[in-house]
């Protein structure tokens, strides 16, 4: 029996938070995580405000094994997700972000425009995905094979090295 993974999905978007646009990526991500076998503890839609995002990431990384964000990773002045994530993580996990960009470049050169970072805070893994549903699906596919192992290792559940 595998250990349950408690996941929190955070959509970062001024437009979705204000109701000007519908959040499509959050539900897509939650669906992929459920299919993967994770339990969705909570699904949030928040603005791109940096200080608020830092607080949200701090609070929610204390209550989950996995916090995955979608959106706010691009070049626009309000794209603050990587900066907020860097403020809260204690250890960076660059391989995950590198792999997502590198592998999905085969699908679109725009993968280069996501500045998403991944890292560890306590026993929680925080992952930034791009904002589009397509980007979410493509990037999730890349990290999926190592996600359970990464989280189990973090939680101390993995007592052997594979
Ligand atoms: N990565 C993948 N794999 N697929 C995509 O469609 N979209 C890109 C990029 N990363 C995309 C992707 C685009 S168009 C942008 S602008 C950046 O992610 C940043 O998106 P965000 O600001 O919504 O996070």
Helix content: 40-55%
CATH architecture: 3-Layer(aba) Sandwich
The CATH fourth-level homologous superfamily: MoaB/Mog-like domain
Work out the helix count: 6
N-to-C series of helices and strands: EHHEHEHEHEEH
Which structural class fits the helix and strand makeup? Answer: alpha/beta
Characterize the structure shown:
Helices cover about 45% and strands about 20% of the residues. With about 160 residues, it is of the alpha/beta class. It has a 6-stranded mixed β-sheet with strand order 2-1-3-6-5-4, sandwiched between helices. Helix 2 (about 25-35) crosses helix 6 and helix 5 runs antiparallel to helix 6. The longest helix has 23 residues, at about 135-155.
Topology:
Layout: E1 5-12, H1 14-18, H2 25-36, E2 38-46, H3 50-61, E3 66-70, H4 81-88, E4 91-92, H5 94-104, E5 118-121, E6 124-129, H6 133-155
Parallel strand pairs: 1-2, 1-3, 3-6
Antiparallel strand pairs: 4-5, 5-6
Helix pairs in contact: 2-6, 3-4, 5-6
The structure holds ligand MTE.
Could you list some keywords that capture this structure?
162 residues, alpha/beta, Molybdenum Cofactor Biosythetic Enzyme, Chain A, six-stranded mixed beta sheet, binds ligand MTE
Quick overview of this protein structure:
The chain is an alpha/beta fold and 162 residues long. It has helices at 14-18, 25-36, 50-61, 81-88, 94-104, 133-155; strands at residues 5-12, 38-46, 66-70, 91-92, 118-121, 124-129. Ligand MTE is lined by residues 71-74, 79, 104, 107-108, 110-111, 113-114, 130-132, 134-135, 138-139.
């Amino acid at each position: 029996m595998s250990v349950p993974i408690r996941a929190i999905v955070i959509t970062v978007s001024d437009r979705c938070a204000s109701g000007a646009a519908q959040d499509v990526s959050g539900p897509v991500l939650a669906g992929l995580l459920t299919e993967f076998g994770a339990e969705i503890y909570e699904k949030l839609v928040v603005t791109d405000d940096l200080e608020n995002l830092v607080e949200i990431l701090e609070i929610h990384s204390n209550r989950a094994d996995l916090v995955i964000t979608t959106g706010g990773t691009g070049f626009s002045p309000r794209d603050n997700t990587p900066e907020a994530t860097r403020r809260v993580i204690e250890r960076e996990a660059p391989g995950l972000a590198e792999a997502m960009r590198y592998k999905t470049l085969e699908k679109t050169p725009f993968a280069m425009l996501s500045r998403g970072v991944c890292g560890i805070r306590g026993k929680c893994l925080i992952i930034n995905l791009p904002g589009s549903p397509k980007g979410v699906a493509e990037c999730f596919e890349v990290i999926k094979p190592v996600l359970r192992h990464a989280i189990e290792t973090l939680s101390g559940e993995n007592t052997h090295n594979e």
